Each structure stands twice: as C-alpha cells, then as structure tokens.
C-alpha cells in the first residue's frame, strides 16, 4: 500500500509544494484508514492487552492526568510489574471526559507499524504513530503546537479542529476518512461533537534538519582533535586581545578540520543510522524460524510485508540495511541478492548466480533475518 498517497493525495505535489510549508486537508478511503486503527482495536488494547505506561496516558481539559489514577501493580513469577493499565479506571475516566492517548503505536500495533515503515521508506525521515480517543463533547488538549510535522487522520466519529496557519485561524471538520497535514509549529486544538466519541491517529515526522546534521559533524570533528581539548589559560580575561587572537586561531583550525570532512562518508553514515535503527517488522517470524530448517529448492518465499532493504557494495563485501540491522555478505552474491529483491514470490531455485546449495543457504539467511517469509 502507498501510505503517502493515502494520507496526502498526490505524493509528488505534497513533497514539492506542501511538505514543511502549509496545511493540507485531504479525503481518503474511509475503510482503509479505519483498518489502520479502529475503535475495536482501541478497545482491545485497553481491555485485554495489559499495556503499561508510557504506552498510554490520559488527558482532560488541557492537562495530563497523573498515572496513579489509572494504573495498578501486579507480580509475575515473583517479579513486580508497575504502571499496568487498570481497564476499569481507564474506562471510568474516559466516561468522565478524559482522552485516552496511545503512544508509540508503531511498536505494538501491526497495521501502524507497517504504515510507519512505509512512510519512512518513502520520505527518508523517522516517524512515529499516536492515537487519541476522546469521549463525546470533550477536549483533551488546549491550543498547542508540535515540534515535528504531523499527519493526522480520523477513523471514528468527528472532531472539530481549530488550526492557525498562514491563512489565519480556520476550522477543519474531521470525519472518518479525513486526513490533515500540519507543518512543524502549527498551533491547533480540537474538540469532539456532543453525540459520539472521536478516534484519530497522528503520525509524527521527526525530520532530520541541517542544524542537527551539521552540529553532529562539527562535534565529532572537534572531539577527534586532542589540541582542542586543552584548557583555556588562567587569568582568562586579563588579556582579552590575546584570548580573542587565540580564539580566532582555533576557529580557523576548526574550519580547516571541517574542510577535510568527507561529505560522501557522512551521508553514508547517516544512511546507515537511518537504515539500521527502525522498528523491526517480524510478524510471522516465529513460524519462519520453525520452517526454515525444512527449506527446499521448491519452497515458495516472498518479501515480508513492510520489510526494507538498502543494498550497498563495499569492496569485497555487500551490505544490506534491513531497517533494524545491517547484514554483511560477500560481494560475489550480489547478483543473487538482487534477483531476490526484484522478485515477488520466488523459490530458492529461482535465485540467480548460485548453485542449489548456495541459494538455499542465502534464502535461509534472509528468512532468519526477516527479509523473506515462507509462503504457507
């Protein structure tokens, strides 16, 4: 599924004209959005999954409620567990007007895990997903703004938003199927109607920004230079002119260090960080671990939904960035790996450039790493 197209309409127009610049409201497929996080899914998480804080928090009238009002303690095998949701208390507070906030849903709700991974693959920035369940006639948070870009979409009920953007303050009526994009720093608040609860999901885009990238480059260049770790002189301001001269010399030195930075290597490092620290997508991997020992030349395999793979050649080695880890293989298996990545459903016999034993070994490895899954 092209989640960016679902949330923004035309992805090319969004990325070129809208992203980071102005608010966008878009009507998408209602059933598809509801399938990502429905009222029934929210009920299941609250009442049967034994979630713990900070996976869930509650807010009412612009204030976050103390977790002691809706959590309990328990023990398992003699070990204490704290911060467990007390479903009865949560439901009572919800009925009394509190908003239930599900945080970091990409970590424990599979449809949103897949949405986040797909968005990250398309836009190249880290993302996260929260959801807000608000009872009728209530408001969870006062007027506020976020420090990151946000996609929000309604999956149940309606909500009246007040958005302050370049066009001034304006209302936005959110109903099931409505998506809205808010650039960083856009003030907003929302309230549900009087007749029904509201459930909406927000996908936060934690954008890489130049200041952070450059700060990291500068800090690492400075920390690697032992001369820049020496103390400033005693009597620090006795001779301001000498101190200013010394500072100018070191600024020139730092400029020289930065002039030696390999920009290609820095981009490579940033790509490696992004390509190895995402939330893993491993649904069904337990069954694959049990099946992989019986893999045969005619076993049908396919790419695991939500998986990603960035292929890079490094001399005599091949790197696969799999989202949550880096896999290193001999460069000679490059054609075989590419044939796997280009295929839909395949068997080890379809792998190019390797004999049967080599193809089986490669496929077993890629199943264990979560890139491939067994078709059952």
Automatic annotation (TrEMBL):
Q: Which residues form the JmjC domain?
A: 125-165
Q: Kindly list the cofactors needed.
A: Fe(2+)
Q: Give a yes or no for keyword Metal-binding in this entry.
A: yes
Gene3D superfamilies found in the cross-reference section = Cupin (2.60.120.650)
Fetch the Pfam families from UniProt: JmjC_2
UniProt KW keywords: Iron, Metal-binding
GO molecular function annotation: metal ion binding
Q: What is this protein called?
A: Cupin
Q: Which organism is it from?
A: Propioniciclava sinopodophylli
């Amino acid at each position: 599924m092209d989640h960016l197209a679902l949330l923004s309409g035309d992805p090319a127009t969004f990325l070129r004209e809208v992203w980071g610049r102005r608010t966008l409201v878009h009507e998408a497929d209602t059933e598809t959005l509801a399938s990502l996080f429905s009222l029934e899914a929210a009920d299941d998480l609250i009442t049967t999954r034994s979630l713990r804080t900070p996976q869930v928090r509650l807010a009412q009238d612009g204030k976050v409620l103390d977790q002691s009002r809706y959590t309990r303690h328990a023990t398992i095998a003699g070990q204490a567990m704290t911060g467990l949701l007390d479903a009865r208390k949560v439901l009572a507070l919800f009925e009394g007007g509190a908003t239930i906030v599900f945080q970091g849903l990409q970590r424990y709700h599979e449809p949103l895990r897949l949405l986040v991974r797909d968005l990250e693959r398309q836009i190249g920035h880290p993302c996260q997903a929260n959801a807000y369940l608000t009872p009728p006639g209530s408001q969870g948070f006062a007027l506020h703004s976020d420090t990151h870009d946000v996609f929000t979409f309604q999956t149940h009920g309606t909500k009246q938003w007040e958005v302050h953007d370049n066009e001034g303050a304006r209302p936005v009526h959110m109903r099931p199927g409505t998506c809205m994009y808010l650039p960083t720093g856009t003030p907003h608040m929302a309230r549900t109607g009087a007749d029904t609860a509201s459930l909406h999901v927000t996908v936060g885009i934690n954008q890489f920004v130049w200041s952070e990238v450059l700060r990291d480059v500068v800090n690492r260049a400075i920390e690697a230079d032992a001369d820049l770790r020496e103390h400033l002189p005693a009597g620090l301001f006795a001779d301001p002119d000498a101190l200013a001269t010394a500072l100018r010399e070191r600024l020139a030195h730092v400029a020289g260090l930065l002039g030696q930075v390999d920009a290609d290597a820095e981009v490579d490092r940033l790509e490696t960080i992004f390509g190895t620290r995402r939330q893993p997508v491993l649904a069904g991997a337990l069954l694959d671990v049990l099946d992989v020992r019986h893999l045969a030349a005619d076993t049908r395999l396919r790419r695991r939904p939500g998986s990603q793979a960035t292929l890079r050649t490094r001399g005599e080695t091949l790197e696969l960035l799999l989202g949550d880890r880096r896999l290193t293989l001999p460069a000679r298996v490059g054609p075989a790996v590419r044939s796997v990545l280009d295929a839909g459903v395949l068997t080890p016999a379809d792998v190019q450039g390797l004999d049967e034993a080599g193809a089986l070994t490669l496929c077993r490895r890629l199943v264990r790493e979560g890139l491939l899954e067994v078709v059952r």
